[in-house]
Design a protein that fits this description.
single chain; 296 residues; mainly alpha; 4 domains; DDR_Repair_Kinase; protein serine/threonine kinase activity; Kinase-like_dom_sf; PI3/4_kinase_cat_sf
Length: 296
């Protein structure tokens, strides 16, 4: 059917109710290029529209199974709403008078809703086994993935180290190439470099020896500090136990000793005991005072 002829007939007040054959001579350039000289006739050259239709039909026949699967998926897909829109329902009710159309639409919607839920339940049951297998497969592959990632990480670290070494070697190569073309290059002064390197090594050895001696002195200091802390603790205990205003010997014992010496007629020993007691008491007080002054 030629669109140009249809437009001309509509302009004259007539209409075309069904596709009408149009002579090739009356067809427009668009119609001739799309359908050919005689439309879909086998005896005449084919147009662009016919060739495209043949290609489409051949592809559809070749992939018929895939198309059927896609159509079934779209028809039974619960996420696709196939119910008519509100404006379509209003147009249909206006055209048919609205007699029972609303109830029919509601009945169809309920049926489609129930069918959708049933298909969803069936689909969930169908994919449950697959998801369980997928879970087992993923659980079994996770340790392998972890080991692969750890291996990849170690390889990346080694690759980075190799890359750094490569960059260092490239710098050395560039230095050697510069030295080849420059007789006065600093690289030729190897003796100076050797002397500086030996000096650096000697300094490092000296620093190591000093560090070792410092560590030994630190250990000795820790030992002395520990011993001094023990001595200080003993002195504190001694200061607590020794009285500051009287001799450590009990007065009752001293009186008994003096009485025994007097009764035995040893007056000179009594005087010596009293003198020794006072002298020892003074020495004790002097030592306690010195210790307390040192502690303070």
């Amino acid at each position: 059917m030629d669109q140009l002829c249809t437009f001309v007939m509509q302009c004259r007040g007539s209409s075309v109710l069904s596709p009408t054959e149009v002579d090739g001579g009356r067809g427009s350039d668009c119609g001739l290029s799309s359908q050919g000289t005689r439309g879909m006739d086998e005896l005449y050259p084919r147009g662009l529209f016919r060739r495209s239709c043949e290609v489409v039909m051949s592809l559809m026949r070749e992939h018929a199974k895939t198309l059927l699967i896609l159509l079934e998926t779209l028809v039974y897909d619960p996420l696709v709403d196939w119910t008519p829109a509100a404006h379509q329902v209003s147009f249909a009710s206006a055209a048919h008078g609205g007699r029972g159309l609303t109830e029919q639409v509601q009945r169809r919607q309920r049926l489609q809703r129930d069918l959708t839920w049933d298909m969803l339940a069936v689909r969930i049951k169908e994919i449950a086994t697959g998801w369980a297998k997928n879970k087992e497969l993923v659980s079994s592959l996770l340790p392998e993935l972890r080991s692969s990632l750890s291996d990849l990480r170690s390889k990346v670290v080694r690759l980075k180290a190799v890359d750094d070494e490569k960059q260092a070697r490239l710098k050395e190569t560039l230095m050697l190439r510069e030295a080849e073309y420059q007789p006065s290059h600093p690289l030729y002064t190897y003796s100076c470099f050797r002397h500086i390197k030996e000096s650096i090594l000697e300094c490092k050895a000296l620093i190591r020896r000093e560090l070792q001696s410092a560590a030994e002195l630190s250990n000795m200091h820790r030992v002395v500090l520990t011993a001094s802390e023990n001595v200080v603790a003993q002195i504190d205990g001694w200061l607590v136990t020794v009285p500051s205003n009287k001799f450590c010997v009990a007065p009752e014992s001293m009186e008994r000793i003096l009485e025994y010496l007097q009764t035995s007629g040893q007056q000179h020993l009594v005087q010596q005991v009293l003198v020794g007691r006072s002298r020892s008491h003074r020495l004790l007080l002097r030592g306690v005072g010195r210790v307390r002054s040192v502690r303070a």
